[in-house]
Amino acid sequence: xxxxxxxxxxxxxxxxxxxxxxxxxxxxxxxxxxxxxxxxxxxxxxxxxxxxxxxxxxxxxxxxxxxxxxxxxxxxxxxxxxxxxxxxxxxxxxxxxxxxxxxxxxxxxxxxxxxxxxxxxxxxxxxxxxxxxxxxxxxxxxxxxxxxxxxxxxxxxxxxxxxxxxxxxxxxxxxxxxxxxxxxxxxxxxxxxxxxxxxxxxxxxxxxxxxxxxxxxxxxxxxxxxxxxxxxxxxxxxxxxxxxxxxxxxxxxxxxxxxxxxxxxxxxxxxxxxxxxxxxxxxxx
Length: 285
Hints:
Elements: H1 2-20, H2 30-43, E1 61-62, E2 70-76, E3 96-99, E4 102-105, H3 121-132, E5 136-140, H4 148-153, H5 158-169, E6 176-180, H6 190-206, E7 213-217, H7 227-237, E8 242-247, H8 262-279
Parallel strand pairs: 2-5, 2-6, 3-5, 6-7, 7-8
Antiparallel strand pairs: 1-4, 3-4
Helix pairs in contact: 1-2, 3-8, 6-7
């Protein structure tokens, strides 16, 4: 089945290239090939079938002591899933990324996220360690370019749910969920967004998540900010069991109008850290 899907994706990509009148000669990197496959899957409206992990090449398996760690599941779009301009590495030697039952060093690109660039999570982990004296373990399970309906109707939550199962088998559950998504829903009705979000989070609860779910206000797409959607996200964060995440739209340091610059990464990490501190729902180990 997977071979058939891959052939369909390659055929689709080849057709698109031919129609555009381009002939590409040269080396296709793993990162660019992964991106092409993901875009091809979205073009064909196929659900994500597993994840090919080029990021595994950049990290090695590390000792995994999950009990004292602050474990956070990161889901949503590309700005939480390795799409930033710069690469960072956590200075805390105990910071980890969790993927399929194993732990890796927390450095970009963080294993799990479908992007191949940088993120705010290594910097966030160092800020957290300095304040709470606990190392951070990140489960990166976001999908670049994903709309809320991708998460409810097209299987984009399967990877996150599989990681929750692997974490449970390791004797642990998450301490927080970070939801940073909304840019792709520039035309989505706020009521529809809220209803779909309820489906996503109920699946997390059904999977055993009892931790607070942080909801970022994230709608900035180019120069467009969706104020009704921002209001909907704020209302979602005000519900019991949910927490206000950062105002991601306030971070305007974007190298391509969409994704974070090096300065933007630092700013976003601080905003996520501030949201956790303001929550007062994180205990020291």
